[in-house]
Each structure stands twice: as C-alpha cells, then as structure tokens.
Amino acid sequence: xxxxxxxxxxxxxxxxEIVPQAQAVLEKVTRGKADIRYEDFDLGAERYLRDGAVLxxxxxxxxxxxxxILLGAIGDPRIKAGIxxxxxxxxxxxxxxxxxxxxxxxxxxxxxxxxxxxxxIDFVVVREGTEGLYAxxxxxxxxxxxxxxxxxxSINTAYGAERVIRYAFQLAMKxxxxxxxxxxxxxxxxxxxxxxxxxxxxxxxxxxxxREYLHIDASTIFLVTEPSRFDVIVTDNxxxxxxxxxxGAVVGGVGYSASGCINASGTYPSMFEPIHGSAPxxxxxxxxxxxxxxxxxxxxxxxxxxxxxxxxxxxxxEDDIERSGSTQRSTEQIGRxxxxxx
Length: 342
Ligand code: IPM
Ligand code: MN
Fold this sequence. Notes:
By secondary structure, this protein is an alpha/beta fold. Helices cover 41% and strands 23% of the residues. It contains eleven helices and twelve strands. The chain has helices spanning 15-30, 45-51, 57-64, 83-95, 158-174, 191-203, 216-225, 237-250, 291-303, 307-324, 331-340; strands at residues 2-11, 34-40, 68-73, 100-106, 122-128, 132-141, 149-155, 178-183, 210-215, 232-235, 258-262, 270-274. The longest helix is centred in the C-terminal third of the chain and has 18 residues, at 307-324. The radius of gyration is 20 Å and the shape is globular. Bound molecules: 3-isopropylmalic acid and manganese (II) ion (MN). 3-isopropylmalic acid is lined by residues 85, 89-90, 241.
C-alpha cells in the first residue's frame, strides 16, 4: 500500500464544516488501497487575524512536500479584499505552478437548472491558472490624485498558453473530442492571435478533435442558450473565472461545482477545492452542502490515479442528488447519505 500525504486547508467559514465530510468519503473509498496521511494547515482568515501571516515560506515549503492539497474555502468579510486572494490562494496557484484550473460542469439528474431547456450539460472549462490579468503585472502611480494611473497587464506566454492548450486537447481526446477556444481576438489582437495560433498548431497533433472559436461575450450567450454544445473549453485566467461562475449557475448553483488547480507536470502538488466561497452568512450552522467538496475529493483521487474510486464518488453523489437532492438536509446528513451509497 502506497502512502499519500494530503495537505488539508479547511480554511474559513463553511470550509471547516464541509472538508471533514470530504475526508470521510476519501477514507472510505481508499480503505485497503492507499494509506492516506493528512496534515492540517492553519491558513486563512483566522491565522491572518491572529498573527498577520498569510502564507509564510515555512508553510509553503511544507505544502510543496505533499502529494495533493484539499482546500475548503478562503475568505472573511473582516479582511480587506485582495489580501487572502492574492496572498494565499493565488500565491499557492502560482508558486505551485498549478497552470491548469480544471472546472467541470455537469447538470445532475434531480438538480433544477435555471434554464428552461437546459438539455444535457456536461462540459469542462480548462482555465489557465498562472498568467493573464491575474499575474500581477502593472501598477499604480499618483495614487489618490486626479492624475492617477492604474494598469493591470495581461501576461500571456507561448509556453504558458501552449501547455494548457495541450492539456485541453488531451482531455478532449478522453471526452467527446470537441474543443472550444474562448477569447476576444477581435480586440485583444496580440494575446488572442497567439492563443489561436497555438490552438491551431497543437491541434495538428490531435486531428480527431473538432475545434471551434468563440468570443468571450458570445460564449456567455451560448452557455445559456445551448450549453450542450460544449465539451472542453480552453481559455485564459480571467475569461475562465467569469465563465465558470456562469457555468456553475447554469448547472444549478456553485454548490455542485468542484475544481482542481493542477500542476500537470507533477513538479509540485495539485490542489482541489469547491468553486464556492466561505459563505459567512451560513457558517457555523451545520447546513452547508458538502457536495462540491466531496466532488473535489473525487477529482483529487482521480489525479492520484485512483480513477475507479473517483468514479465511484461521482456515482454516489449523482445517486444522492437524484434521490434526495432537493430535500433539506444538514451538512452531516448529506455526508452520511453519500457515504452510505459508496
Ligand atoms: C475562483 C475565485 C478566485 C479567482 C478569487 C477568490 C481569487 O473567484 O477560484 O474562481 O478569481 O480565481
Ligand atoms: Mn471565480
């Protein structure tokens, strides 16, 4: 039996409530097959409010030694926007070179979509995770004066775009072999042109994958008028951020959306997290839905090559949603119900 070291960052708000449910599911499906060792990391709002630390080098070094990271949620209304986002979440994505932000959207049976005619929705957004407008290039001068200048520069490297595009093609080969590049190449003529050329170039190696291009604005329309057309969408960091929130809404709310921040070259651990936030309004009440965290644990197992176990988690969640998805249940009850289907 191989040993796996998993970092657990339960984080803030409902993160602390949902992560134990995901851990219980992980334990159950790997029993007798893998020896899972958890290491808890005290990161997030409470740590910051207590000692001002966001992500000290010492914690980052320890994170680098893990096989994977399970994250609950980060965020607290008492802390100024940007501190934890940039200092913790984005810092981990960048420092651990998690260049594939993998975000599947599936409309499960029994979940009500806000769309009148949703059809079969089952697609994955492959969002670039380390560059674009998130990279932190730019600055501000004359701050607070009428002459203030503020810039954010979108960083797009051929290296960074190509590797995520290649990942998207490989994923499309395992799925319905359809890849949509989303960008805004009619306006962003430098980066858009480069992304398109790289998609065409890498696409030569995957002749069985059908390619299409959509502008970001048009894609937000198609996501609500014809979501079943999508299989794999590849896009940059900010477009991917926006599109995956919309995707979450279309499949019945981000409560069912899991994600992986993946370092596909394996140099550092990948991180798995629900797309939703820390939900301070319902934190501490024991009513948060742990489904997205449980699905994230499934993605983590898939990443560690436990494909069958990952598939069994998804099936258990699907069953659970189909039979009791719309009934009011506590966090623990949902966790127990899903466990009992495994
Ligand atoms: C997400 C979040 C983050 C992002 C924020 C919290 C930095 O919205 O994971 O989608 O923009 O990537
Ligand atoms: Mn987001």
